[in-house]
Amino acid sequence: KRCTLLKGCHIKSHAWLESCIIGWKSVVGKWVRMENTTVLGEDVIVKDELFVNGGKVLPHKAISESVSEPQIIM
């Protein structure tokens, strides 16, 4: 809810998104929970079953661990 999904992004089954911006060609894995104004740049991959709380992820990155505190991921 309250999200912006840009062209070419893919949200897999059972993902829960709130107040997020998902960049071009990004992939959000199964059972991912993203909230608190999380922003994904272009071509970002979020692996399955992760929690992202307010992360800002720069383009062309892969996230394989949960982000419990808001931070910038370079």
TrEMBL record:
Highest taxon above the source species: Eukaryota
Entries under SUPFAM superfamilies matching the protein: Trimeric LpxA-like enzymes
Domain Mannose-1-phosphate guanyltransferase C-terminal: from-to ranges: 1-73
Cited InterPro entries: GMPPB_C (IPR056729), Mannose-1P_guanyltransferase (IPR050486), Trimer_LpxA-like_sf (IPR011004)
PANTHER family: SUGAR-1-PHOSPHATE GUANYL TRANSFERASE
Protein name: Mannose-1-phosphate guanyltransferase C-terminal domain-containing protein
Source organism of the structure: Parasteatoda tepidariorum
